[in-house]
Amino acid sequence: MKSALFIAADLWMIFAGFFCGWRFLRRYRNHLLGLEWMIVGTSGVNFLVWALRGGDEADPQARLVFFFDTFSRGVGITLILVMGLLRVTHRYKPSPVADIAAFALATVAGLYFSGFGGHAFHLGPAIFFVTVNALTTPFLIYFAWRVWNAGARGPAVWAGLATVAGAVIAVTYDFFPLPGDDAHRTIFATAALATWGTQMFVYFFAYRALDRHDRTTGTVPVPTSLSTAGEESR
Prior knowledge:
Elements: H1 2-28, H2 31-52, H3 60-89, H4 96-114, H5 123-149, H6 153-175, H7 186-217, H8 226-232
Helix pairs in contact: 1-2, 1-7, 2-3, 3-4, 3-5, 5-6, 6-7
């Protein structure tokens, strides 16, 4: 039963990553969120294959698992997430150079922190991951508040709850191992995967609700070029 729940949670995260990521790319031309969501989906596929093969941390595939994990926890679902959501909260679209720089930074962070290994506790990385999550959480609460004020009460509540759950997972990840969990931390991994998948899913619908509100109320700026016109069309 425990293994089945773990697989279901991972498949949920994979679905949310690819389904919502593709829609971010195709419908909203939001490359930051679209690519990050798909990276998380890819991470879920890699993690599932590795786990089904035994989950050995000595396996070369484990380094890729740790890379994807630290890529998103460090920069992807923190800095890149905020930059992507700024499109609907402040109508701010980073330049292509800023987009590339953000993913380059996430790659460097992933490569560096994945070198610390898997479940072994390291104080420096643990503090870093909790800190960047703590810095991101207030903006996500603000995002949920904006969605609420746009009249999308359901998506706003879900976005707020998912944000709180994500913060709990971030703190629990390194500092509070769950009692009774196994050596592979299957119970925690199941909770984390389910939470991350839910975050991606509800943030997408909250983003959609706020974007629709902005367009309906005419707060979206009039495109000034053919390129921006294409980006703003759906």
